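We were asked to recover a plausible sequence for a given structure. The inputs and outputs are reproduced exactly as logged, with field labels preserved.

PROBLEM: sequence recovery
POSITIONS: 402
GIVEN STRUCTURE:
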C-alpha cells in the first residue's frame, strides 16, 4: 500500500506531541509493509534541519518539504477579521505547498493520502483533482473545542471577543468538511463520538497515539530521592501556557507553603521571557532541553495542569511509559484510559493539586505501584504497531469499497 502523508510541520525532532504521534504511526505502518512518502511544511515556528536527519529516520521512501512562514502576527490576525475565513486554517493554506503537492501526485500514484490534522484540509480539492487516492483525515483534536475552552478561560474582554469570532469560524470550517474525506481517524473514542454527534457520516476508525515501547526504558523512581516536580511541553501552544500560568499563580505558592523545599523544573520549546523571569531557588526554568526523556526521568512527578485541549497528551503517555507519576487534570487525561490513583493522579482544583503532591510525599509504596501500573497500561494499550495494524485494516476496507 502506497501512502502519501501530509504534515503541517516536519515531524522531527521528537520534541512535541504531534511529531511523536506522526512519527510513531508512520514507523509502524512502514513496519507493516506500507510504502510511505512524506510531504511536510518546514515552518518558521518549528524549523527542522531536514538535511541532517538521523539514520533512524528511515521509514519514508521519499521526503518533500516546503518552507512556510506561519508566524503569528497581530496585524495579520486583525486583517483576517475583515474576511470570513478561519485565521487558524488560513496560515497553512500555502501556494508553494499546493504546487509541490500537485507535482508529487502527478509523478506517482498513491492508494491513500493521509492528512495529519484538520489544517491540511485546504488541499482536498487539489488531491481530488490530481489523484484517485482515498483521503484520510487523522483528527488529532476537535480543533474548535480546544479554542472554545481557551476562550472560556480568558478574562480579557477584547481577547475573548476575538477568540470567539475565530472559534465560530474554525468550528464552521471543521463541520463544513466533516464528511469530505473517505475515512475519519479520530485520536480518541471520545472525539469520535463527539464528531458523530456533530454530523459525521463517513466511516471512522479511532487511532490512539502509540509509542514504540522499546524506546522507553523502565526506570523506577528512587524512593530515597527527594520528590521533585517537572513540567515539559511546547510553550508556544496556548493551552500549555494557560495551564502552566494557572499552576504558578494559583497552586505553586500553596505547594511551597506546605513543602518549602519542593522544586519545580520547567522545560519546553520557545519558553517565553516572562517565564524565565519567574525562576527562583524552588522554580528552575531549563528552557528547551536536549532530551525530553532524560528530563522526565530526572524527576519522580510530572505535572500537566491542562485547562483546555482535546485529543491526547503525548507527554502523559511518555511519562507513564517511563514509569513516572503523572499528576494532571481531568481534561489532561482525556483520551487516555488511565484511572485516578491507579495509573495516574487527577486534580482539578488548587487544593486537590496540593493534596496529590502531599500524597506523593507520604506514600512511596503506593507511588511505586502506580508507576508500575502506568507502564503496564502503555505496554498493553498504546503500542504503536498494534494501533497501526487496526488502521491498516480500515485503509484496506475503504480501498475495497471504492
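RECOVERED SEQUENCE:
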Amino acid at each position: 500500500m502506497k501512502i502519501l502523508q501530509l504534515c503541517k510541520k516536519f515531524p522531527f525532532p521528537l520534541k512535541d506531541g504531534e511529531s511523536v504521534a506522526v512519527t510513531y504511526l508512520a514507523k509502524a505502518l512502514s513496519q507493516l509493509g506500507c510504502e510511505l512518502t512524506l510531504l511536510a511544511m518546514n515552518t518558521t515556528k518549528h524549523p527542522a534541519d531536514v538535511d541532517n536527519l538521523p539514520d533512524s529516520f528511515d521509514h519514508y521512501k521519499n521526503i518533500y518539504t516546503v518552507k512556510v512562514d506561519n508566524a503569528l502576527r497581530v496585524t495579520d490576525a486583525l486583517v483576517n477579521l475583515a474576511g470570513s475565513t478561519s485565521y487558524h486554517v488560513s496560515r497553512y493554506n500555502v501556494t508553494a505547498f499546493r504546487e509541490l503537492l500537485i507535482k508529487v501526485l502527478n509523478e506517482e500514484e498513491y492508494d491513500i493520502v493521509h492528512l495529519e490534522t484538520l489544517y491540511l484540509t485546504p488541499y482536498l480539492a487539489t488531491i481530488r483533482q490530481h489523484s484517485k487516492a482515498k483521503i484520510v483525515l487523522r483528527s488529532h483534536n476537535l480543533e474548535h473545542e480546544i479554542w472554545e475552552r481557551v476562550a472560556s478561560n480568558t478574562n480579557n474582554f477584547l481577547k475573548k471577543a476575538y477568540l470567539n469570532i475565530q472559534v465560530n469560524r474554525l468550528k464552521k470550517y471543521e463541520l463544513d468538511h466533516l464528511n469530505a474525506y473517505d475515512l475519519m481517524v479520530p485520536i480518541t473514542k471520545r472525539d469520535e463520538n463527539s464528531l458523530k454527534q456533530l454530523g459525521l457520516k463517513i466511516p471512522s476508525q479511532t487511532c490512539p497515539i502509540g509509542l514504540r515501547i522499546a524506546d522507553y526504558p523502565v526506570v523506577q523512581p528512587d524512593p530515597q530521592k527527594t520528590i521533585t516536580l517537572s513540567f515539559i511541553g511546547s510553550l508556544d501552544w496556548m493551552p500549555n501556557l494557560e495551564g502552566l500560568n494557572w499552576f504558578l499563580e494559583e497552586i505553586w505558592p500553596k505547594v511551597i507553603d506546605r513543602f518549602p523545599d519542593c522544586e519545580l523544573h520547567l522545560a519546553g520549546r520557545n519558553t517565553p521571557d516572562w517565564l524565565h523571569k519567574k525562576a527562583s531557588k524552588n522554580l528552575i526554568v531549563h528552557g528547551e532541553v536536549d532530551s525530553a526523556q532524560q528530563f522526565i526521568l530526572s524527576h519522580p512527578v510530572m505535572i500537566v495542569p491542562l485547562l483546555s485541549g482535546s485529543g491526547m497528551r503525548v507527554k502523559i503517555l511518555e511519562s507513564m511509559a517511563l514509569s513516572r507519576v503523572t499528576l494532571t487534570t481531568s481534561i489532561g487525561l482525556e483520551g487516555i484510559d488511565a484511572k485516578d490513583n491507579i495509573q495516574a493522579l487527577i486534580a482539578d482544583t488548587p487544593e486537590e493539586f496540593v493534596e496529590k503532591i502531599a500524597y506523593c510525599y507520604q506514600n512511596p509504596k503506593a507511588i511505586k505501584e502506580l508507576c508500575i501500573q502506568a507502564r503496564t497500561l502503555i505496554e498493553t494499550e498504546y503500542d504503536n504497531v498494534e494501533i497501526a495494524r487496526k488502521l491498516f485494516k480500515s485503509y484496506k476496507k475503504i480501498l475495497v469499497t471504492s
